[in-house]
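Quick one: structure tokens for this chain, please?
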Amino acid sequence: MTTHLEIESLADDNGKSLFRSQRVKINGKEAITPLKALDTTKFRSNTKLNKNAYGFSEIYRKIGSDKINQLLTDADEHDRYSRELTRIFNRSHSTDLNICVLKFSPNTPNQFPSRSDIELLTDIAHSFSDITPIPLPGVKIDKTNFSSYMSYLQLCYDTIEEFNNKPIMGTIPRLPRELYPKLLDFYAKNQITSFCFDFDGRTPDHLKLRPIIRHLKTKKILEQTLIYGINAKPGKTLKNINVIPSKDFTAYGFGLDILGENHIGPKGYNPNLQISDDKKLENRKRIFIKSDYGYYKTTTGEEIRESYPNDTAIKLDDMLHEQQSTLQKLFNMEQQSLEAGKIRSDLNILDKNETILTYIEGKEYARNEISRFKVAVKDASQTTL
């Protein structure tokens, strides 16, 4: 039988925004939100992060029918895949909360995983998670296939429950907004109170999370839920400007408790811009500066040196001279985790007439989001969708 997630509300923003802090307890481990997930696939044996950045570790994998069939029929390949995930899993700290999110990659547009697929997927997710997330189906969901999707969810839930000692996390793909209540009611019926929202490579805003937040508020269970988001797009990274706002990180202000990594490349690139491949790569290599919440191109060397933080364990010159972007991604995870910790700390010492938005106002590239934070909290106080 599933173990229920213990969630304790610690602090909020006094009704001024949806920023909040919670204590989450799972089978002897605990963490306090807001949190930034660290993608352990990016960890290197010779690269360390600031020790205060650890706390929530994430493994994300897309897995298709052909690969699943190989894992089901080839014992050697199954063992190799298991050893690879174990190595990645062991990179996390022993006190970290761990999650392994799997996304099925179908061969045809409406292909849901079979029963044997589901058994394998849920076994993998369960083995490498403290909270077992239901695998994402990788299928575009609408009214025409929603009943098939719900049948898939029920089978996933039943399969996990056959042999389970952990909480289950409900996954939420992009849906037509009219379908969210039915999905959330299914999770509520099964006492699932933690959710993984897949932004699917899109930028977070209050409209994407609004139907979820408002429904949970209407059912009077918002305070007992944990909301984790993955694949949030940081902004227009290909835009040919030195600094762009970090629109992924500010998702906490729309009700997110844990921000995962984005594992999906840029969408909607306009070929008429005629940017060279080298320029596109240059524009994508950006680092998060927490003093103003901007993503700076790594080619803006002097500008970065002036604001480069002294609490990072990653040397600037090492990052600027690497051919790939691994150190850049590690730096961003570390710095966003530390900044989530700052928000967490500040929320827990707010007086009743204070708001975390005063702190956010001091971040040059986040100021435009403040009005949207206020709209989001107003929406959450309404009782109809």
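The first strand starts at residue 6 and ends at 12.
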